[in-house]
Design goal:
Elements (H helix, E strand, L loop, with lengths): L2 E7 L7 H12 L4 E5 L18 H12 L2 E6 L8 H10 L13 E6 L7 H13 L10 E3 L15 H21 L2 H6 L1
Length: about 190
């Protein structure tokens, strides 16, 4: 039985540490946890005036999130909060009112920073939004990756064995969390 996880990366930069981390997570995931990056850079800024004929990108994004069994957010921190592109994706997916694509989806958060705090502020701001849009977020283990600039080799692969082990354990726990919150029939349909 496979579990479909939409991975949302909070940075648009091609060589972003968030993207490298998402790739490492995909590599480390248990075989039944299928992690697929869902791009958010093409989403027009949310404007309720566009809901009468929403952009095609919004419709595709909302449908992709609805199909997922769960969502994994991998994000840096901008100004002690989530990047604007990530907040926009949350807004696009949560509208129109009463039709949120996020509703009830189990969520995981991996925050990271080249600094020492591991994007603690972004992690907790994201958790506040997830409460409001009804996404139960895995509480433990919390994932704050600090000093990420030195975690990757020249090919962009995760070089830190202790981080690989930690993230592997996180993914096993995340898979159990999803299983606990998702009916078997929903996982089979994915």
């Amino acid at each position: 039985m496979s579990t479909d996880v939409a991975v949302i990366i909070g940075s648009l930069r091609r060589e972003a540490f968030s993207r490298k981390t998402a790739n490492a997570l995909r590599e480390l995931a248990p075989p039944d946890l299928i992690l697929e990056v869902v791009e958010i850079g093409q989403l027009a800024l949310y404007n309720e005036d566009l809901e009468n004929g929403p952009p095609t990108e919004w419709a595709r994004f909302r449908e992709r999130i609805r199909r997922a069994n769960a969502v994994l957010f991998v994000t840096p921190e901008y100004n002690r909060s989530v990047p604007g592109v990530l907040k926009n994706a949350l807004d696009v997916g949560s509208r129109p009112h009463g039709q949120s694509a996020w509703d009830g989806k189990p969520a995981g958060i991996v925050s990271l920073s080249p600094g020492a705090l591991g994007a603690f502020g972004a992690n907790h701001h994201l958790r506040q939004s997830l409460v409001f849009i009804n996404m139960p977020a895995l509480q433990q283990p919390e994932v704050y990756l600090s000093d990420v600039g030195g975690m990757f080799d020249e090919h962009g692969r995760l070089a830190s064995e202790s981080t690989r082990q930690f993230l592997s354990g996180f993914l096993v726990t995340f898979a159990r969390w999803i299983e606990t919150l998702t009916p078997t029939s929903a996982r089979l349909a994915a």
